[in-house]
Amino acid sequence: MGKFKTFITEAIGLDAVKKAIGNKPIWDYKNDLTEEFGSDYRKTIGTFELDDSILDEHPLYNKLEDEFVKLGYILTKEGYIKGYVSKNKQQFKIGKILLRMYDKSGLNKFKNLADAFRDDPIRRTNMKPYLIVVSKHPYDVLGASTDRNWTSCVNLGGGIVYSKNTGMKKDMNADRLINSLHEPFMVAYLVDPDDSNTQGKVMIQRPLSRILIYPFKSEDGEEYNWSIGEVYGANNKIFEDTVRNWVIKLNEKFTENEIHAPIPEVYYDSYDEDIVNSYYTPDEMFDQVKDNLTGKGIDLGSLVLDDNMYSIYDLTLNQFIPKEIMNHPLVKDKVFFDNHFQPIIHDLLMQIFYRVYKDMEDMDIYRIYDNGSIQMARIPLKGVPESMNVEEDEILFDYGPYGYIYVILSELRQINNTYEYTSGMIGDNLETFFTDLERMVGDQLIEQDIEPDIENWQEVDSSMFHDMALELQSNFNL
Predict the structure, then answer these.
(1) Distance CA 12, CA 163 (A)
(2) Contact at 8 Å (CB) between 117 and 98?
(3) CA distance linking residue 178 with residue 10, whole number of Å
């Protein structure tokens, strides 16, 4: 592995990094990418003028704002920078308040927040532009979420933690990231210009944000492309766009039309696939999307070619409808199922799939099974990009000859990104619908001196019942 440079002596400690890596293989970060980095491991690729708008998406500021609201204090952006909150027109120091908050056991419940606030680099008085720094050094990659003002699933253990969903132990994907360093991983940081050593080299002790830069390898194994992950820490568009543009330029020097695919056994979180030079055949594209949907309750079925038109058969989405709803006495009633339940499900599904195919109103787009699963009918892909306002030349330039397929499958994959949210919204909508409908039907039955049991719903005037259902259906909000 070779020894790390002596100036790499920062946040998480070299001993911890060396212990984590052990004898595992590391890519030749010293000699590779020298055209981009020269003799250094880090490269400044841009600057960022800091202002308090960055606090809009700063996790520590948002967390403290929530906590102080509960305590009856007012925290403003200016107050955060200067270190005070107000209450009843009086100002109080944030650090002192946090250090005085004890729980019933006598422990300071805000100690981690106090430490993170004290060390937050946003709260500096020096307003020189921040530096956007890219590093190819394994140390900086492994420090992506350890001892920072944020945390994630690649946390090596320890560090500044203020999220209630994380702990101080090594997180689930830390070892996966460590084991990935046999390939050329990189990372970008937003860094205080004064965060440097006596020789003037950037230190990255207290970065404001970071983005992982993931490797992708060509089919022949000779070339790499890269893509960027999510922004952690204080999110801002200038930082993200600067890193994205640097990676796009880095990818430009490699062969056009060469397929660059994810590397087996390398850790990937979410990444921007649009900036990787990937030109896949339809089957390869389809397999990629299917792989990314595995285990999410979604099966894309099969991609077929029929009469010069690609189609997707048997697209199945399970668990969108809770079993309690499918077992509801109204759903089991054939008259209600045919006249009311099917149209409701159609409307809900239409709102999910409108991105994929906007002319589905007259299609038999689904079948509902007794277990609550929904099987989609054939979805033709021909002509769909036109309805999505996608330029043909742009598709061919960006994605190659099978660009239409790629665009459609990418749109389908968006379902995966919102699956839990969407399935929850459908379940919540249906639960609210049936709860309100039972109440309204019960009221009408009582007025008619009939037992207010939902199974007596057909005793309600049919036109009145239809109006009730339409009114409740109009309240759906997806």
Answers:
(1) 19
(2) yes
(3) 18
Distances (CA, A) of 327 to 335, 424, 430, 458, 469: 15, 18, 12, 18, 19
Beta bridge partners of 187: 135, 212
The set of residues, in sequence order, having a beta carbon less than 8 Å from that of 54 and lying 6+ positions away, is: 122, 208, 234, 236
Q: Give kind and range of the element (H or E) at residue 438.
A: helix 419-447
The CA distance from 430 to 438, in Å, is 12
Phi, psi torsion values for 365, nearest 5 degrees: -90, -5
pLDDT tens readout for residues 104-143:
555 667 777 777 787 676 776 556 788 899 999 888 888 7
Q: Rounded mean pLDDT of 145-151?
A: 61
Phi and psi based region of residue 389 (left: phi greater than 0; alpha: psi -120 to 50; beta: remaining): left
Which of 8-17, 168-177, 427-436, 462-471 shows the lowest per-residue confidence on average (mean pLDDT)? 8-17
At residue 429, the 3 state secondary structure works out as: helix
Give the residue extent of every domain in the chain: 14-50+127-275, 52-123
How far, in Å, CA of 156 to CA of 175, rounded? 8
Using CA atoms, how far apart are residues 56 and 76, in angstroms rounded to an integer?
Answer: 11
Angle in degrees, CA 229, 230, 231, rounded to 5: 125
CA–centroid distance for 40 within its chain: 32
The Cα–Cα gap between 397 and 403 comes to 9
Element holding 426 (H helix, E strand): helix 419-447
Q: Strand pairing partners for 313?
A: 302
Distance CA 86, CA 68 (A): 10
Please tell me the total number of residues recorded for the chain in this structure: 478
The CA angle 260-261-264, to the nearest 5 degrees, is: 140
Distance of CA 78 to the CA centre of its chain: 30
